[in-house]
């Protein structure tokens, strides 16, 4: 997916077995206001999918991941265009390094199964989490 066209990326970031989740802003002008989101966002300046998800993760939660830590990649379509979904697993002590950015209301850790079944989770990310869990 490195050289393909895509609109944005998302990351299922597991910290010690729990999924890092961001509560979206409660602004009616954004998609899925007040829903449970995952790190990621839109592509900038022709960057690769991996570079996009790594940059967005750093901006949103302060964590700098390496490409080698991305253990899963899957493309899927959305009305805004093709998207790329990644997964990464970090040790539990990484939680101390999280620095929440300026997008969203806050962050939390939850089991991936709880996220996949949560009524406030963004539906297409619930689907991607379920697909990833089924691939393991």
TrEMBL record:
It comes from the Bacteria. Its cofactor is Mg(2+). One of its GO terms (molecular function) is hydrolase activity. It holds the Pfam family NUDIX. InterPro entries: NUDIX_hydrolase-like_dom_sf (IPR015797), NUDIX_hydrolase_CS (IPR020084), NUDIX_hydrolase_dom (IPR000086). Keywords: Hydrolase. Residues 4-135 form the Nudix hydrolase domain. Gene3D superfamilies: Nucleoside Triphosphate Pyrophosphohydrolase. PANTHER family: GDP-MANNOSE MANNOSYL HYDROLASE, MUTT_NUDIX FAMILY PROTEIN. This is 8-oxo-dGTP diphosphatase. It comes from Marinovum algicola.
